[in-house]
Hints:
CATH superfamily of the largest domain: Vaccinia Virus protein VP39
Structural class: alpha/beta
Number of helices: 20
CATH class of the largest domain: Alpha Beta
Distance between the termini: 55 Å
Shape: globular
Mean pLDDT: 87
CATH topology of the largest domain: Rossmann fold
Oligomer: single chain
Strand order of the largest sheet: 1-22-2-16-15-3-4-6-5-14
Radius of gyration: 30 Å
Helix content: 25-40%
CATH architecture of the largest domain: 3-Layer(aba) Sandwich
Amino acid sequence: MPELNFKGKEFVFNHHLAVPHRPLVPDANKSIGEPRLDGNLIINGDNLHALKSLLPMYAGKVDCIFIDPPYNTGNEGWCYNDNVNSPMMQQWLSENPIGIEDGLRHDKWCAMMWPRLRLLHELLAETGSIFISIDHNEAHHLRMMLDSIFGAECFIAAIAWQKRTSPEARKKLGPAFDTIYVYAKSKADLNLAKLERSVEQEEEFSNTDNDPNGPWTSTDMTAQNPDPSKRKDQQYRIELPTGEFVEPPPGRCWSMLEPEYLRLKIEGRIWFGANGTARPRIKTYLNGSEGISSWTWWPNNEVGHNQEAKKEILEILGSENPFDYPKPVRLISRILALATKPNSIILDSFAGSATTAHAVLAANNKGGDRRFILIECENYADTLTAERVRRVINGYSFQGTQREELLKQSLTFSDLKKADKLLDHIASIENLEGQRFDKIEKKVKDGELTVEGVKAITEKTEGLGGSFTYCTLGEAIDMDRMLTGETLPSFEALGALLFHMATNEAIDPAKVVEQDGHGYLGESPAFHVWLIYKPELDFLKSREAALTLAKAKALAEAKPGKKHLVFAPAKFVSQKLLDEEKVSVEFAPLPWALYRVERG
């Protein structure tokens, strides 16, 4: 497989392993609801460090990731600031911010993205998927990195999202779309959902033959088969109700074997046209339809555009909007509809204007308990990112006119021939949605029909409800500083880190039990995991911090059935004695010689 090479790759290839663990520190004053690390999170801090801090609790648990990283246009002013121990990389730091004249800006972008993608891969569940929005500046480099990290076999799609509503006048050939790459953690385990049908799509179903199963639509019963020597068992003759026989057209075959066709015919699910003379088609009933399949063209009339996203932020936050190309809620809502379930965890590590959180809260408002995790490194994480989420949850003051797009479609000559049906569809929208708005506006401009609900707001927009915990990143767990007693992490922070290191799994905070420096961290398929630790030097110097035979027996009896892995600063019992006493306990010294503080 072709391999992407960039300057500095050898230094960042495994850099994510060297990133220190920094515990998440909740800030109750900036949160909504009781602070908790297993609920919605907004994290202010470098996203590389924040992703590493999420591993102990969320490794392999995130169901859907959406990120909108810097596009590296040369005009963004983003900085490469990862602390990689290399003279070359340190030289790059002195040359920031990265601009259009920087000949290494593409190398720096790849070096910035590589370790973050490695950590995102670790956080993603086996059944999960990642969606990454990008433009032409780095799309080719990103695709090759994703092939290397996620595996080329895990590529799902390259979606074209129509981000604009019209061409840029100052460009002869302006960009109309961004690419959204979709990869799975495991393609075999991925199960994307179908989309709900719109009112317009449901009207495509009818019941011209009074079928007792209700409205239906028909689909082609043939499949491609350019080689007549193949699929011979799908090239049988079919008798029409008129007594005539038909065969598949040239280059095609029937889409099913004859026994399956005969079963559907008996069930009344084959349609031969109103006069019984048409080639057979398969009936799909509205009441049994799972929805519609998505494809890789996402037009802005379905999922929104940049201008719509700016308008959303303006309505919620007022004039404060530093984002040139924010994403609309409808775009993220489409991703959630495809890739999440009602209890999914969704991660956005380039959170920006918090559209992902807004979309999650809107989805939950219709049913479900999805959780979001946002990471934003800029200083507007509180005043803009989190503030938008606060206002979406609680409601916000707004004076002016709110518009909601209810229908948008290009008009064709075929639409004019079916004008009565189109007018009936508009009337059904007015009947269904009219009570929510002051008026329904209908207009045609540049060959496009738009139907909008218009409502005057003079007080407050109703909130969607919900909660979140605002976090910053604490001091890194530093082994050398622990030895001197300068920095001692909490039992919870150290326990989560050790459990992940020992099992490569995420810890479940609900299973952690700690009492007076002795705690149970949880279980893996092989072990029950324990920790003897207090963030106090006097305790760490005492005999209470060491594993003894009596403690080992007590732990083994408390949780029978598996081996026990016990982290402790020291032990006063040999493994040989434990084996002789048939105590299924294995001692694991803490990753640093904490017990040496007794000698100091």
